[in-house]
């Protein structure tokens, strides 16, 4: 019974077709029910408790959460693992897959039976093996020391408090050591791997044991590993780049949107954040061919006149992307929903508000999906003598960023949706 209690709770993100929710009972969920309620309040999952029955569905985040009992909550994406990793690489959050040899671990990513966080962990194991064998190095680090020989800068404030310890003088010295910020970040990420690699493969255990032994002497005393991971990635030593990119994903819980409070025992991705970031990246990359230039991010917000007094940012209109060319303005808003063809009333009215706020000629809802007719005209009218079109677009997110970008460029070049 104890083993059944720790079986993973596996569900799928919203929009995964006819996939049924995970269903269990209050007894099988046990004390984890309170944490599941908190996750539901954060909109990480949908939780329905009726009598003794507990039903769990995913929402728009995918990945892994370690529950208080140690049980794993796995939310699977409707997008294949290899494609999801390709989107992360496209956004600069993951090494380009071309950097990895097939025998190095990418083969594991192609498996539909592995959850993507397992793939990330195995790729990090491979990257750590590469760093350990070929690139591991010492670096100069400022350390505190107390020595009778002066080899650094004397800390006068401490000297005044520790005169009784003379001739040992408190000082700051530069020393070559393996305890560099880069190595400490990698060591901290290495310590997180057992919680990600839960299926107990013998090869994974062997690699982890070997690497943890080799990295055991490296300190782990960084107070803020997330900040350290971001700083380390900005100026990494040669050969460290891929490992640090993966370590950052692991240490921050893979969260893309900065306002999220996940992390810790959670390793989840915001799919709407990937879709929004991907849309902006595609528009930026296609500007040379389409003539539509991406507007600066700070120009995508229109404040209501009373926003300072009432509600702040919640009363602002913020579009995901605005592009312009020769006196024309096109506003695009990413919608990570399975609603292409059944666009909601709220989204339609939101686009009308954007048209007024940004004086746009065209407003588009952009959905991730596949459709034989990728453009739907929702409204064509004239406002103040200006022609306005509101439509919805469907781009093949499952096919990866290159295919999506090609589809978007075709739509942008044509300029007008069909009647």
Explain what the structure shows:
The chain is of the alpha+beta class and 419 residues long. The chain folds into four domains: 1-77, no CATH class; 79-138 and 178-254, no CATH class; 139-177, no CATH class; 272-414, Trna Endonuclease, Chain: A, domain 1 (3-Layer(aba) Sandwich). It is 37% helix and 24% strand. It has helices spanning 2-5, 26-29, 33-41, 81-90, 106-109, 116-135, 156-161, 181-196, 202-214, 225-234, 241-251, 271-290, 345-358, 401-414; strands at 9-12, 22-25, 45-50, 53-58, 61-66, 72-76, 139-147, 153-154, 169-177, 266-270, 293-294, 301-303, 316-318, 321-325, 328-334, 362-368, 375-383, 386-395. It has a six-stranded mixed sheet, with helices on both faces. Helix 6 packs antiparallel against helix 8 (181-196), helix 6 (116-135) packs across helix 9 (202-214) and helix 8 packs across helix 10 (225-234).
Rounded to an integer, what's the Rg over CA atoms? 26 Å
Helicity, as a percent range: 25-40%
Uncertain runs: 1-5, 101-112
How many strand units?
Answer: 18
Class of the largest domain, according to the CATH hierarchy? Answer: Alpha Beta
Biggest sheet statistics: 6 strands, mixed
If you average the pLDDT, what whole number results? 81
Q: How much of the residues is beta strand, in percent?
A: 15-25%
């Amino acid at each position: 019974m104890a083993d059944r209690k720790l079986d993973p709770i596996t569900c799928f993100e919203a929009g995964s077709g006819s996939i049924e929710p995970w269903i269990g009972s209050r007894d099988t969920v046990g004390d984890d029910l309170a944490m599941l309620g908190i996750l539901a309040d954060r909109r990480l999952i949908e939780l329905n408790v009726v009598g003794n029955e507990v039903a769990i569905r995913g929402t728009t985040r995918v990945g892994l959460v370690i529950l208080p009992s140690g049980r794993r909550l796995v939310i699977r994406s409707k997008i294949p693992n290899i494609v999801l990793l390709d989107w992360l690489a496209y956004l600069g959050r993951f090494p380009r897959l071309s950097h990895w040899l097939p025998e190095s671990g990418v083969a594991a990513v192609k498996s539909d039976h592995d959850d993507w966080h397992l793939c990330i962990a195995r790729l990090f194991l491979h990257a750590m093996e590469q760093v350990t064998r070929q690139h591991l190095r010492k670096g100069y680090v400022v350390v505190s020391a107390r020595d009778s020989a002066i080899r650094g800068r004397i800390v006068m404030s401490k000297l005044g408090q520790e005169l009784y310890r003379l001739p040992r003088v408190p000082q700051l010295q530069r020393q070559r050591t393996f305890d560099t910020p880069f190595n400490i970040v990698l060591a901290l990420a290495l310590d997180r791997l057992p919680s990600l690699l839960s299926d107990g493969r013998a090869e994974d255990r062997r690699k982890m044991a070997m690497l943890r032994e080799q990295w055991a002497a490296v300190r782990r005393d960084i107070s803020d590993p997330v900040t350290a991971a971001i700083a380390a990635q900005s100026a990494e030593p040669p050969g460290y780049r891929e490992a640090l990119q993966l370590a950052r994903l692991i240490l921050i819980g893979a969260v893309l949107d900065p306002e999220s409070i996940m992390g810790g025992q959670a390793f989840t991705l915001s799919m709407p954040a990937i879709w929004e970031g991907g849309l902006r990246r595609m528009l930026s990359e296609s500007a040379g061919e389409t003539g539509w230039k991406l507007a600066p991010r700070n120009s995508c917000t229109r404040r209501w006149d009373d926003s300072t007094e009432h509600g702040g940012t919640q009363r602002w209109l913020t579009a995901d992307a605005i592009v312009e060319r020769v006196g024309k303005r096109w506003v695009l808003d990413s919608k990570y929903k399975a609603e292409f063809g059944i666009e909601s009333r709220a989204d339609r009215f939101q686009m009308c508000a954007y048209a007024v706020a940004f004086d746009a000629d065209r407003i588009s809802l952009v959905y991730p999906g596949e459709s034989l007719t990728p453009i739907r005209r929702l409204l064509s009218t004239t406002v103040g003598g200006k022609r306005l079109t509101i439509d919805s677009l469907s781009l093949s997110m499952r096919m990866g960023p290159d295919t999506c970008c090609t589809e978007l460029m075709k739509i942008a070049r044509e300029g007008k949706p069909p009647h």
